[in-house]
Amino acid sequence: MSRQNITDILAFLAVANERSFTRAAAKLGVSQSALSHTVRDLETRLGVRLLTRTTRSVSPTEAGERLMQTVAPRLEEIEAEIAAVSDLGEHPSGTIRITVIDHVADSIVWPRIARVLDRYQDVRVEINTEYRLVDVAAERFDIGVRYGDQVQKDMVAVRLTSDVRMTIVGSPRYFETHEVPATVQDLVRQNCITLRLPGGGIYAWELRDGDREVEAKVTGQVTFSGAYQMLNAALSGYGLTFLPEELTQPHVEAGRLRRVMDDCCPDFPALHAYYPSRRNSSRAMRLVIDALRADA
């Protein structure tokens, strides 16, 4: 395989994983037109189309899927070996890509790994915040951080927290004009601040109704795609919201929010960092994993 082919295959993999020339170009730091030209040159040399392009989406063809499944893992192995060789030097180095939920990035991931960056100047991190469940191997992330029940079975998982207590909260202003709910059924009469999931649907609150686990399909005036916006809307009196205790409790203690329906709120499985076993070869990776685990 020529060096040109390797470079062009990396460009193709970026587009195939992102399902977008625009996002892939931003990720690679090149123009969209240059990236499109690179992929077309690769297709011409191989004599086969690798991507199906429409006005709205980009997806790999059968040949593209095969290239992703066969070549991408080998390139990852090469990257891992190069990282392992660099670890033989005095200073660990490398970029660690992490996918994590927005508020967890602020409350857990960043405080724990900042100490690594302070000590090791050649270690770099890229933190991507989103609610979408990410295939870390396919999308070339080094580490994912999600709740334990969302971690794929073939991953190495490291526990970062105890189980996560969930809460339903509203502001004193909200309860001036709305009754206090006591049961899951009462939520249909409430104005709830909802979360839009990456796939387009609205998140159904995962609650307990007596001994049963239920999904409450709540509605309201305001929908967001992030936890902090939901919290701010609740503080401003626009409805009830369903968020982890770590976000809401300081405001509850200060009187800015009121907890309701505690007996209906479950504990979510603990947060875990997870990664494919072959990704744990570099010293930079081990330093980041150990830092994440340190305060668990």
What is this entry, summarized?
The protein has 296 residues and is of the alpha+beta class. The chain has 9 helices and 15 strands.
Write structural notes for this entry.
The model has no long low-confidence stretch (mean pLDDT 88). The strands form 5 sheets. The protein has a 5-stranded mixed sheet with strand order 4-3-5-15-6, covered by helices on one side. Strands 7, 12, 13 and 14 form a 4-stranded antiparallel sheet that branches. Strands 1-2 form a two-stranded antiparallel sheet. The longest helix is centred in the first third of the chain and has 25 residues, at 62-86. The protein is built from 9 helices and 15 strands. Strand 3 (94-100), helix 5 (102-119) and strand 4 (123-129) form a beta-alpha-beta unit. With 296 residues, the protein is of the alpha+beta class.
Q: Name the beta content range.
A: 15-25%
User: Mind describing the biggest β-sheet?
Assistant: 5 strands, mixed
Radius of gyration: 23 Å
How far apart lie the N and C ends? 45 Å
Strand and helix order: HHHEEHEHEEEEHEEEEHEHEEEH
**Helix and strand composition category:** alpha+beta
Provide the helix percentage.
25-40%
- Got a strand count? 15
Q: How many individual helices? A: 9
Please write out the topology.
Blueprint: H1 3-18, H2 21-28, H3 32-46, E1 51-53, E2 58-60, H4 62-86, E3 94-100, H5 102-119, E4 123-129, E5 143-147, E6 156-159, E7 164-170, H6 172-175, E8 194-195, E9 205-209, E10 212-216, E11 223-224, H7 227-235, E12 241-244, H8 245-253, E13 258-260, E14 267-268, E15 271-275, H9 283-294
Parallel strand pairs: 3-4, 3-5, 8-11
Antiparallel strand pairs: 1-2, 5-15, 6-15, 7-12, 7-13, 7-14, 9-10
Helix pairs in contact: 1-2, 1-3, 2-3, 5-9
